[in-house]
Amino acid sequence: MVAELAHGEVLRYMQRSKILLHTSAYEGFGTVMIEALYAGAHVVSFVDTAGMAVKNWHVVGSEEEMVEVVVGLLGDPETGYESVKPFTMEDSARAMMGLFEYG
Known about the structure:
Elements: H1 7-16, E1 19-22, H2 31-39, E2 42-45, E3 57-59, H3 63-75, H4 89-100
Parallel strand pairs: 1-2, 2-3
């Protein structure tokens, strides 16, 4: 049975997780990935990170590579699970302001 959870409860589960496995090949850059990184999980996905490297976000090109990365992360005792905040509200505000600046 699938049940709907409150957002706060989802975040509590996420803080207990080591990996967010995002298997969609077409869905865009989702907030769930940022929330998982901030909660300390690694993100493994097919989604490109807009061409920039993001700590603990592993972009893969195939299902086989996805499995390999997940097994590698979970099997490595040196894998760190620290909170990562790749984008701040200030970054978002600057980007939005840049849309309205004239050249």
